[in-house]
């Protein structure tokens, strides 16, 4: 069994901006499961040198980025859920790990989560199926390939060992990857300096989806924001280091992109998306997202594109109020480091006579003073 991860440096084209429509043929030894992007158009078998070869031609996909292509093969046990009210789902797992898979829970979390995202993003799930593939020795926790999510099989655990924190993590990983079907797959960052447009949103909104509950998710909703606080601590710890960087980071090469898969992109970025939700209000925030997905579906974006959509959403929803999101972006997304606060006070006769809060940048931080 061979495992290759294309993202970010082993991709097949020079730039994400070169999005294209794919028509792929794969030659594989027969007897292996082939996970198609959107269905097999035709199937042909022939013999060559006494070796049976299976040729599968896949249907043409929508415009997708080159790093989102995946094909998985192996002697998997397959679980299916073809509920006519939802997108078809399948789970692929090694036979030796079947006892650790809670497939009904996984199907249920996916259904509840897709309903939440579709309702709030104003855009339907953009693909024709959801495949979940449990992968051994996987480099990342999971990867949001189009219609085919690959997971490290370490997220599975026998039912008797499934604590609430473990189940919350299991739930949020699924929700994180499903969120990428919009943030990353339907709309893709133009270059890796805006990786946060994928990862910060998928992290923050997966916890938001978990906190809202629903069928199969309710048991974990109380743990959601508590669990996310771990990401915030991760981001804070890395933002205090000399190696810190802006959320919208400099990224001259794909080799640099690997270093951006870190606590600042995920932890600090997701915390600032949560801040933006509370700054705008959830309904207004979603209005901005709906403008974003409608305007940029199957296209590439940069930070200014996102900010313009969110600003338009706020201005239309609250015409009598003022919020400068360009100012928010420049202070929070385009600077590095954190500030520290201290209190200075004077007292007389048991009472405070003077009280001053001081703000100053920590070491390795840009000298920026923030109000939000």
From TrEMBL:
Keyword Aminoacyl-tRNA synthetase part of the UniProt annotation: no
InterPro entries reported in the protein's UniProt record: Peptidase_M1, Peptidase_M1_aminopeptidases, Peptidase_M1_dom, Peptidase_M4/M1_CTD_sf
Example GO BP: proteolysis
Every Peptidase M1 membrane alanine aminopeptidase domain range: 108-314
UniProt KW keywords: Hydrolase, Metal-binding, Metalloprotease, Protease, Zinc
GO cellular component: cytoplasm; extracellular space; membrane
GO MF annotations, alphabetized: metalloaminopeptidase activity; peptide binding; zinc ion binding
Residue ranges crossing the lipid bilayer per the database entry: none
Cofactor(s) demanded: Zn(2+)
Gene3D superfamilies: Neutral Protease Domain 2
Family of this protein: Belongs to the peptidase M1 family.
Protein name according to UniProt: Peptidase M1 membrane alanine aminopeptidase domain-containing protein
Organism: Favella ehrenbergii
């Amino acid at each position: 069994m061979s495992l290759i991860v294309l993202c970010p440096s082993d991709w097949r084209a020079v730039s994400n901006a070169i999005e294209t429509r794919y028509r792929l043929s794969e030659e594989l030894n027969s007897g292996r499961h082939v996970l198609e992007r959107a269905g097999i158009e035709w199937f042909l078998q022939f013999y060559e040198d006494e070796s049976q070869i299976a040729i599968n031609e896949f249907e043409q996909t929508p415009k997708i980025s080159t790093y989102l292509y995946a094909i998985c093969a192996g002697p998997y046990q397959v679980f299916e859920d073809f509920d006519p009210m939802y997108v078809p789902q399948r789970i692929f797992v090694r036979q030796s790990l079947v006892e650790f898979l809670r497939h009904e829970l996984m199907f249920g979390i996916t259904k509840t989560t897709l309903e939440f995202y579709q309702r709030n993003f104003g855009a339907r799930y953009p693909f024709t199926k959801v495949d979940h593939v449990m992968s051994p020795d996987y480099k990342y926790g999971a990867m949001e390939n189009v219609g085919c999510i690959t997971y490290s099989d370490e997220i599975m655990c026998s039912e008797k060992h499934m604590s609430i924190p473990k189940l919350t993590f299991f739930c949020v990983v699924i929700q994180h990857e499903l969120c990428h079907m919009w943030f990353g797959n339907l709309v893709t960052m133009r270059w890796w300096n805006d990786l946060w447009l994928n990862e910060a949103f998928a992290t923050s909104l997966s916890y938001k989806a978990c906190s809202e509950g629903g069928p199969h998710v309710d048991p974990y909703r109380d743990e959601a924001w508590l669990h996310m606080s771990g990401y915030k601590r991760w981001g804070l710890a890395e933002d205090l280091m000399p190696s810190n960087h802006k959320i919208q980071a400099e990224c001259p090469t794909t080799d640099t992109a690997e270093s951006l898969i870190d606590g600042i992109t995920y932890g600090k970025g997701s915390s600032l998306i949560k801040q933006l939700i509370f700054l705008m209000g959830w309904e207004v925030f979603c209005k901005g997202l709906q403008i974003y997905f409608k305007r940029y579906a199957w296209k590439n974006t940069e930070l200014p594109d996102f900010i313009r959509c969110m600003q338009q959403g706020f201005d239309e929803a609250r015409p009598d109020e003022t919020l400068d999101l360009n100012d928010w972006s420049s202070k929070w997304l385009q600077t590095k480091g954190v500030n520290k606060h201290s209190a200075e006070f004077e007292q007389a006769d048991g009472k405070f006579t003077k009280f001053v809060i001081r703000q100053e940048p920590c070491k390795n931080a840009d000298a920026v003073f923030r109000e939000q």
